Amino acid sequence: MSKVAQRLEEIRGQVDASASKAGHDVTLVAVSKTKPDVDLMEAYDAGQRDFGENRVQELAGKAERLPKDIRWHMIGHVQTNKIKDFLPFVHLVHGVDRVKVLDVMQKEAAKLGRQVNLLLQVHIAEEATKFGFDPNELKALASPKAWTGYPNLCPVGLMGMATFTDDAEQVRREFASLASLHQDVGPALSEVAQSRGEDWGVLSMGMSGDWPLAVEEGSTMVRVGSAIFGHRNPPQG
Fold first, then answer.
1. Do 76 and 86 meet the contact criterion of CB atoms below 8 Å apart?
2. Is residue 235 in some structural domain?
3. 190 located within any domain
4. Residue 237 forms beta bridges with which residues?
């Protein structure tokens, strides 16, 4: 068994155990940005199908070369001028953090004639550097009427990143606040998702350093990179 497959098995076991304890399923997204194809294929051969990338060119290249049943997650901050380049390949867009992104995604998705599933990113951290809708902006989107102008887009959940801190209680509070918002907007956004043939329910929070806390607070999707692939290689070029 390769090192990647071994680490993946360990992480998957830990995530499954935490999910079982919390009483809900959790999807593991393997953050593969800057990693070579051979590493991804080792994870793929061990059964992994959800991979996260944040560089558009890298995602497009990997999507072209690697197996077509991989589910590609766009996990980086979304730049509107790059949307047209990743939209053909993506399974789920994680960082939809402002209305302008929705506007451009709708325009490009309509050109492609496809529906794009997305997570609305909410600003829950104390750090000003984190992106996302504030809770009031999110609530403005929590109605079927708000989505009439976005027929090619489907909200399937929320995403948020906690403050980068050693204070576990602060991180827990931030995750709990997102879980509470997820419940608040759920009925309206579930109606939107179901009208487009999808289910609402993804709550993406938790990365390598804090995912166990996130799962305890209700996360259904965690993103783990270095614990699976080792420390990232520098980007090429």
1. no
2. no
3. yes
4. none
Rounded to an integer, what distance in angstroms lies between the CA atom of residue 140 and that of residue 63? 35
What residues contact 126, with CB distance under 8 A and at least 6 apart? 163, 170, 174
Strand, helix or coil for residue 222:
strand
234 domain-assigned:
no
Provide DSSP, 105-133: HHHHHHHHT--EEEEEEB--SS-TTS--B
Residue 236 included in any domain: no
| Chain-centroid distance, C-alpha 29 | 8
Which residue's entry shows tokens 């325009």? 107
Report the Cα–Cα distance between both ends of the chain, in Å, rounded.
Answer: 31
d(CA 157, CA 149): 19
Check residue 114 and report its DSSP letter.
-
The pLDDT, as a whole number, for residue 237 is 38
Q: Which CATH number characterizes residue 91's domain? A: 3.20.20.10
Enter the pTM of the model. Answer: 0.94
Instruction: Give the closest residue to 172 by CA, choosing from 202, 129, 139, 205.
Output: 205
Q: Which residue has the tokens 């302008």?
A: 100
Rounded to a whole number of angstroms, the CA Rg of the chain reads 17
The predicted pLDDT at position 172 comes to 97
234 has a pLDDT exceeding 70: no
Please give the residue range of the domain that contains residue 102.
3-229
* DSSP one-letter code for 144: G
Q: How many domains does the chain have?
A: 1
Distance CA 79, CA 101 (A): 8
Site of tokens 């992104």: 101
